[in-house]
Each structure stands twice: as structure tokens, then as C-alpha cells.
Amino acid sequence: MAAAASPATAAAVREAAPAHRQIGIRPGHGPAPFRIGFLAKPSSRWAAISVPPGPRRAAPAASAARERVTEEEERPVSVELEPIASEQQLDWVLGEARQLQLPIVLLWMASWCRKCIYLKPKLEKLAAEYH
């Protein structure tokens, strides 16, 4: 059972934890919009909860969360990778990506390669995140 943290202990953890280790703060982007952050020291077995100062606005946060969930529900879980069988097809794909200003990842793999077979579903899932 975890012991309750005193305010002084929570402040010490907050001072000891670097900003990039705090959930809710993105390196180089400043604090994230109104979130509860969990502060944890790597050697400790507990975490303190820090609520940002200011008025508590649950409704905007809840609606933003609903929007994120709706967007995530519309995204595919994975995307089937398309094989490129010819030089002309490769040129067409690269041209389309350039015209639409989209990044493209080319995966060279062999159907007999164990590592390639292992990576394929992971790359399909990654492609779905950016779809």
C-alpha cells in the first residue's frame, strides 16, 4: 500500500523531476493545455498528483476529450502496405506524394526474412497512426 505524500514531499519531487519527465509538459512546446500531471521520481515507489493553478474548467476538457476519441475512432487501426512491383509504379507513388506534399516511407522487405515478417504489422500500425 502506498503512503500518502505530504505537500513538502510532493514539492521536493516536483523540484527534482526534470520538466520533460512530467506528463503534460512536452519538450520544446511548453505546458500542455489544462491537464493533471503525474510527477514521479525514478527511484520512488509513489507519484504525487499536481493540478495546475487557476479555475477548474471540466467542461472544455471533457469536450476536447470527446473530440479526440471521435477522431481516434475514425482512424483505421492498421493500413495494408501496398507492394510496388515496377519502376513506373514507384515513380507514380513518389510523384503523388510530392504533389500532395505527403511524407512517404519505402519498406524494402523479403517475404522469407524473419525480421521483415516481424516488422510488417508494426509498420502497418505506424502507417495507420499517420493515415
From TrEMBL:
Superkingdom as given in the UniProt entry: Eukaryota
Region (Disordered): 50-74
Organism of provenance: Zea mays
GO cellular component: chloroplast stroma
Xref: InterPro entries: Thioredoxin-like_sf, WCRKC1/2
Name of this chain's protein: Thioredoxin domain-containing protein
